[in-house]
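subagent[fold] <- orchestrator: predict structure for attached chain, return tokens only, no commentary.
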Amino acid sequence: MSEIKITAVNFESEVKNSDIPVLLDFWATWCGPCRMIAPFVEKLADEFEGTLKVGKINVDEEPALAGAFGIDSIPTLVVMKNGQALKTVIGYRSYNELKKLLSDCGIA
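subagent[fold] -> orchestrator:
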């Protein structure tokens, strides 16, 4: 499963009502660390296909969603399950750190 672009329009159906956990990646095109972490996030989307949905939220295009999550630094990754945020990490993380985040949430 490839990453899904999350917007205010599809947030409820893709995230709130998802029957599997969702990893949200809050990012922006101008953000260097966001571009550095992007391949890891994409790899997780492929590796956990069917057990994890990966959603990308561009903070410049979706300021209301960013505001709803209190995003003031990017990249920020939020693990959601049953419509609730389980864990949040801010800033660049290695691939192994991202896998541990998922494991800590009972996903990996």
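orchestrator: received. Logging for downstream: The CA atoms of residues 25 and 38 lie 9 Å apart. The two ends are 16 Å apart (CA to CA).
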